[in-house]
Amino acid sequence: MKIGMVAGAAGSGKMKKDMGMKNTLCPASIGLAVSLALVPWSGALAAEAQVVEQGKTSQQTAPVKPIADLAEAQRVQQALNDFITAYETGNVIALRNKLDPTMVGYQRFLDGVVRDTTAYKQIRIHLLDTQTLAGPDVAVIQTNWEKRFISVSSFQPGLFTGHSTFLFHRGKEGWRIAAFGGDNLFASQSGVLGQLTITPTVIPLASIPAALGFIDIPVQLEVVDPDIAGLGTINLEVVTDKGDRETFALTELTPGRYTRNTLRFGAAVTVVPGNGKIDITGPTTVTLRYLDNNPGDNRPPSVLTRTIRVQ
């Protein structure tokens, strides 16, 4: 690499080219110059890389604040256990203190508890498959349950089962129940949706001979409804697609559990509603209905239906 030096002659106006001065840069000089020129850039890049690396490290090591820890979920479960214990022992004052006063149906719930503690003794509640979701101020518990007791009126043991959801709210006094969902295991008066089961669901048409006026066919009917425990008997409405309409009584076997073992059928040419038997003129669909006036969970009266096919 050659660099020409040009000098100006003062006053003469002539330019002279100095060809005698020559300078050649060696490779070492070039490397030094490049290194010196890159020092500020490399320092800036290194500083920036260090900042980025520190940011990544801080993101990886920064603790994530949990919504609620395991200990808080255990406190919610303990609050529910204390509530259950108060109910089993009939301690209405303790129940009142553990309820949120703004809960919908507050007084109705307490009235139902008083009714249960009067009608049932030796109440024991077992929770199954319990799941807890706890937040800073709100928690939800979902669980299946079994409720065992002895009826005061009949001295017969009883068993109710269901699935419930409990909403808890934390205040100055700790965790309190703010709302219920599903089946209410604490107060029968607060409502539990009844259950209607029928077996079999198919009856051969040939089992109803035309020569007989009627025949009692084995059919297992069962209604379980804690809301009506102690009534003794309930009525089940039976209708057919041929226009027949009958009423059959079920007898209380244990508190809130009503059963019947037979249904009366009769071969007929014409259907006569209200004659005490289900008239069969051919293949028929028989529908059994039970009206639950208090299904709970703020639901309106519900009609439970099951069908039997005669064919």
Secondary structure layout:
Layout: E1 5-8, E2 15-18, H1 27-61, H2 70-88, H3 92-97, H4 106-119, E3 120-134, E4 138-151, E5 157-171, E6 174-182, E7 195-199, E8 202-203, E9 215-224, E10 233-240, E11 245-254, E12 257-267, E13 278-280, E14 284-292, E15 302-310
Fold and architecture overview:
The chain is an alpha+beta fold and 311 residues long. It contains four helices and 15 strands. The chain has helices at 27-61, 70-88, 92-97, 106-119; strands spanning 5-8, 15-18, 120-134, 138-151, 157-171, 174-182, 195-199, 202-203, 215-224, 233-240, 245-254, 257-267, 278-280, 284-292, 302-310. A hairpin with a 5-residue loop joins strand 4 and strand 5. The radius of gyration is 43 Å and the shape is elongated.
Task: Give the CA-CA distance, first to last residue.
Answer: 112 Å
Q: How large, in whole angstroms, is the Cα Rg?
A: 43 Å
Derived from helix and strand composition plus strand pairing, the structural class reads alpha+beta
User: In percent terms, what proportion of residues is strand?
Assistant: 35-45%
Order of secondary-structure elements: EEHHHHEEEEEEEEEEEEE
**Average of pLDDT:** 78
What is the approximate shape? elongated
Number of strands: 15
